[in-house]
């Protein structure tokens, strides 16, 4: 298999430029071998369940032709035309092309200059930009050197897919409505330099403002909203470093509010195992600043309304092609499960193989 040139991707055999060890797809071989495996997979699959998950079964030549057609539509100078050495899927390019104008128009400000004093050494490269209105935002992308990394394979996404997740997390907060709308800072696509990525408005924090959940009813409400939000988007990476405390002033008094950042690893596919960090809020683990937890898991009428709005919104996303079909379908499954139980759910207890009727008999993988 060391000479393998193709892997079994979402739409059938696809040329593989990565080493087999580094590639995020597991099946490798010649085009004929992988095509045979693809046909067998399609024959065994339930067509209804496979809608939008495994694709149309096109040959690699057809898939490549479609990819080139999408790139031609986007144009060589397009913000979304960067393919990261072919890592972006055709569907991701299409989603980005549709999402781009929406988010670029919604994010009204433009950077004045890059802040050379800020540097980031995290998995994703982050740059801080100063804006003409005096505000700050953070541009983030995953570089080409990380495309075939173990992290990207584990999270089962691509650099462009991660940027799409960031944008759609912001859009989800808007879908959920009042109380949720400001949970995620304003986020959009940008390409300040080599790679397309996401840019997010900075959060102004003040360590002198108390972060006590017990004494701040809005912060309590934010904790609960974050638990619901993270279950809906399937956050896989909401650890204690991926939220901040913004500050708002009410009647002259300052108080802390939760802000959820770093949403790249969310919206997992419907058949993706969820076994890693998940969410400190959706799993009700408390925060580093407080042992505060959920008083009740029963959904309120307002929360049911919010989740139903989100469901209707995701259906429209799928119709308009502004979310990958498999990730949109998985989001609907999580929402339907929450609505069917009438309770807030813990991600570490949710089986991603839930079909809508019952759990599979196979036990959950060990955490």
Which structural traits does this protein have?
about 375 residues, 2 domains, alpha+beta, three-stranded antiparallel beta sheet
Percent of residues in β-strands: 15-25%
C-alpha termini separation: 31 Å
The value of Rg in angstroms is 21 Å
Helix content: 25-40%
Name the poorly predicted regions. Answer: 43-58, 354-367
Given helix and strand content, the structural type is: alpha+beta
Total number of distinct structural domains? 2
DSSP strand tally: 12
Q: Give the count of helical stretches.
A: 9
Sequence of secondary-structure elements? EEEHHHHEEEHHEEHEEEEHH
* Strand numbers in spatial order across the main sheet: 4-5-6-8-7
Shape estimate: globular
The major beta sheet can be summarized as: 5 strands, antiparallel
Strand and helix layout:
Elements: E1 6-9, E2 12-15, E3 28-29, H1 31-44, H2 47-50, H3 60-74, H4 90-106, E4 111-114, E5 125-131, E6 136-141, H5 150-155, H6 159-176, E7 187-190, E8 197-201, H7 217-233, E9 237-238, E10 243-250, E11 253-260, E12 278-279, H8 301-320, H9 325-341
Helix pairs in contact: 3-4, 4-6, 8-9
Explained architecture:
- The structure is a single chain.
- The chain is α+β, with helices and mostly antiparallel strands.
- The chain folds into 2 domains: 1-65, no CATH class; 75-349, no CATH class.
- The chain has helices spanning 31-44, 47-50, 60-74, 90-106, 150-155, 159-176, 217-233, 301-320, 325-341; strands at residues 6-9, 12-15, 28-29, 111-114, 125-131, 136-141, 187-190, 197-201, 237-238, 243-250, 253-260, 278-279.
- A hairpin with a 2-residue loop joins β10 (243-250) and β11 (253-260).
- α3 runs parallel beside α4 (90-106), α4 (90-106) crosses α6 (159-176) and α8 (301-320) packs antiparallel against α9.
- It is globular.
- The relative contact order is 0.11.
- Residues 43-58 and 354-367 have low confidence and may be disordered.
């Amino acid at each position: 298999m060391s000479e393998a040139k193709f892997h079994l991707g979402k739409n059938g055999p696809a040329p593989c430029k990565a080493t087999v060890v580094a590639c995020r797809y597991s099946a490798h071989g010649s085009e004929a071998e992988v095509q045979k495996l693809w046909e067998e997979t399609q024959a065994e699959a339930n067509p209804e369940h496979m809608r939008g998950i495994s694709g149309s079964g096109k040959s690699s030549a057809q898939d490549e032709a479609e990819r080139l057609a999408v790139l031609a539509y986007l144009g060589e100078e397009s913000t979304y035309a960067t393919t990261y050495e072919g890592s972006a899927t055709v569907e991701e390019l299409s989603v980005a092309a549709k999402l781009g104008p929406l988010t670029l128009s919604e994010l009204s400000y433009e950077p004045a200059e890059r802040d050379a004093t800020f540097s980031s050494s995290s998995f994703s490269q982050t740059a801080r930009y100063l804006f003409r209105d005096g505000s700050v935002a953070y541009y983030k992308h995953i570089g080409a050197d990380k495309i075939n990394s173990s992290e990207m394979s584990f999270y089962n996404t691509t650099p462009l897919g991660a940027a799409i997740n960031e944008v759609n997390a912001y859009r989800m907060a808007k879908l959920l409505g009042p109380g949720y709308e400001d949970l995620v800072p304003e986020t959009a696509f940008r390409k300040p330099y080599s790679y397309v990525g996401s840019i997010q408005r900075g959060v102004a924090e003040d360590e002198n403002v108390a972060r006590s959940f017990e004494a701040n009813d809005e912060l309590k409400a934010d904790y609960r909203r974050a638990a619901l939000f993270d279950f809906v988007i399937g956050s896989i990476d909401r650890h204690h470093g991926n939220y901040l405390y913004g500050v708002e002033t009410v009647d002259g008094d300052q108080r802390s509010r939760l802000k959820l950042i770093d949403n790249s690893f969310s919206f997992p596919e419907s058949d993706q195992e969820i076994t890693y960090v998940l969410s400190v809020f959706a799993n009700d683990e408390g925060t580093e600043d407080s042992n505060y937890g959920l008083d009740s898991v029963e959904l309120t009428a307002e929360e049911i309304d919010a989740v139903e709005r989100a469901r209707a919104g995701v259906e429209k996303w799928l119709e308009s092609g502004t979310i990958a079909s498999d990730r949109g379908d998985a989001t609907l499954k999580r929402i339907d499960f929450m609505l069917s139980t009438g309770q807030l759910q813990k991600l570490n207890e949710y089986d991603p193989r839930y079909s809508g009727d019952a759990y599979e008999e196979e036990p959950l993988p060990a955490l």
